[in-house]
User: Fold these one by one.
Assistant:
Number 1:
Amino acid sequence: MLAVNEYFDGKVKSIGLNNASGKNTVGVMDIGEYEFGTSTVEYMTVVSGALNVLLPDSDTWHLYGAGETFIVAAGKKFKLKVAEQTAYLCRYE
């Protein structure tokens, strides 16, 4: 069954699914700044738009565009700045 998730007063929405590649979410983020925590390793790929990311243990923001992926370790927090509505795919391990 698909799982629908909503965060930050509806500014981030995703649909969760399980398939041959494992547990995934496909979602969208509205313009804004967000902080997320992880419980597993997350592989986040930008599908459309861009995410400015501050990864754990880093002082430098990095901009990821369409087709680019960043990885966040389990048990960590990361910050995002979203300047335009952005779509993403997140794979959990």
Note: Residues 9 and 70 are 25 Å apart (CA to CA).
Number 2:
Amino acid sequence: MLSLDMLTNGQSALIEHFDTEELPLKLIEMGCLPGSTISLIQKAPFNDPLYIKIDDSFLAIRKETAKHIFVKLT
């Protein structure tokens, strides 16, 4: 199982689970839930932050947060 920060640009995956204590509530409210499709659009210089797409929403998250979201490649 991979964490979100291990994906490369353009890869898509399904969210398997995440560490609820480390994930901001705002991300959960925006659709970052198990079973959702997530795509890594681009990594900023030095790999932080990550620009991602969750279903139809685009957002940027820190690499430290992405380490707590576990995904399965599609």
Note: The mean pLDDT is 90.
